[in-house]
Amino acid sequence: MRTISKFFVIFLLLGLLSACGTDNTAINSSTIISTPNLTITSATVTPQLSSPFVLKSSAVVEGGALPKDFTCDGTSATLPLSWSGVPSSTQEFAVIMHHIPGPGDTHWYWVLYNIPLTVINLPRNVTGIGTLGNNSVNGKTEYAPPCSKGPGQKNYTYTIYALSSSPRLTVPPAQVNRDALLAAIQDNTLASAALNVSYSR
Questions:
Q1: Is residue 29 predicted with pLDDT exceeding 50?
Q2: What CATH code is carried by the domain that includes residue 105?
Q3: How many domains does the chain fold into?
Q4: Where are the beta strands (DSSP E) in 125-201?
Q5: Are 120 and 190 in contact (CB under 8 A)?
């Protein structure tokens, strides 16, 4: 009986010591967590993304109807444009306005390049900024307003290109059409942004 009692006492003491150890651990952990100087805070670091390159107009919204004033039915004015979110390595800009009436057919109305980096908008009827290429309406180095034949809605796209260097052109402005400019900037285009509009006669 004495032997059994001794084992019982030893077992009881071991149980109490084990319980005390667990409590101490819990107390120590609680103390570490609640101590301001030892509190560890984890946080997710989100990279700062640059703003997207965006093209807008004060006269029409994306997908909106082009006002008559900017067509051959009005005063044939150029659309006011502005852009933001310019890539950091940009050196200059280029602008193209085009329309695709059908598969394999593209009309272009405005080809403008050599736009300085300091320019972030083109006012209505802009002049004296950049270099004009030709258009597919009359072949002249000027803006040709949309003047679609026949009724129905036609879609037009204004696109601005952020360039890391000047277009690599080997022809004079009078020979710079949409395809020639796109070929000249294909290797130095950092980003592009488009504004799509429509017009119905």
A1: no
A2: 3.90.280.10
A3: 2
A4: 131-132, 153-163, 189-200
A5: no
What was the pLDDT predicted at 163?
Answer: 98
Instruction: Return d(Cα 194, Cα 99) in angstroms, integer.
Output: 13
Answer yes or no: do 32 and 63 share one domain: no
Give yes or no: residues 90 and 145 share one domain.
yes
- In a domain, residue 49? The reply is no
Please tell me the distance from the alpha carbon of residue 6 to that of residue 133, in angstroms, as a whole number.
106
What does the alpha-carbon distance between residue 144 and residue 187 come to, in Å, rounded to a whole number? 28
* Residue-level pLDDT at 151: 81
Cα(85)–Cα(50) distance, integer angstroms = 7
- 92-102 and 153-163: which strand pairing? antiparallel
Q: Which residues pair with 29 in a beta bridge?
A: none
- Same domain for 10 and 87, yes or no, is no
* Domain, as residue range, for 128: 54-200
Q: Is residue 90 located within the same domain as residue 170?
A: yes
Least confident of 75-79, 107-111, 145-149, 171-175: 145-149
**pTM to 2 decimal places:** 0.75
pLDDT in tens, 63-100: 999 999 999 999 999 999 999 999 999 999 999 999 99
